[in-house]
What we know:
By secondary structure, this protein is α+β, with helices and mostly antiparallel strands. The chain has one domain: CATH 1.10.630.10. The protein is built from seven helices and eight strands.
Amino acid sequence: MGQKGDKFLRDSALNLLVAGRDSMSAGLSWFFWLVATHPSVESKILEEMKGSFASKEADWRSVLGMNEVSKLVYLHAAICESLRLFPPVPYLHVCAINPDILPSGHRINPNTKLYYSLYAMGRMEETWGEDCLEFKPERWISEEGGIKHIPSYKFIAFSTGPRSCLGKETTMIEMKMVATAVLWNYQIKVVESHSVSPNVSVVLHMEHGLKVRLTKRFV
C-alpha cells in the first residue's frame, strides 16, 4: 500500500479512537447523572448485579468479563434509555448524490445537505409515547424479561442503515463494564446546586461537567 496508504490508515484509526473516547465519556456522564438522580433505577441495577454476581468471588474484578456483563439486562436497558435521551452525537447530516424524494414528500436536489437531530428524535412523543421525557429503562425490556428489539431507525443513537456505527456492540460492552465497576464500588451523589445542562456541540458534553461525591459502597 505504501507509506501514504499506511499513514492514512494510521491517522484514520487514531481519529476513530479519539471520537469514540469523547462520545463514550459523554454518554457515561449522562448515564451516571441519570442513575444518581433516579434512586429506584439505581436500586434495580444493584439488585440485578447482586443476583448475577452472588456465586462469584468476592473480588469484583472477577465478574467484569464480557459474558458476565452481557447478562445484565436491566443495566443494558438503562444505558440504552440514557443514550435515547442524551445521544453523545446530538445531530448528523447526510448529502444527496442524486435527486430524491423524502418520505414526507419533499423533493431534494443533488448536493443538498440534510441535518437531523438525534437529540430531538429521542424525545418525540409520537415515536416514544407520552412518557418520552421520562428516564424509564423498563421500555426496553420485553415481557419475557429480555431486551426488546427496537429498530435502529427509531433508536438512532448509533445511526442507522449503511451508516450504522461499526463499534456499537463494543461500545455497549465497554459502557457496561465501566458502569458495573463504578456502581458496584461507589454510590454517586450529584453535588447540590450543581447545574447540569447540555453543551450543544459535535459531542453532547455537559456544559459544566458532572460534579459528584463518591461514597464507598459495601455490597
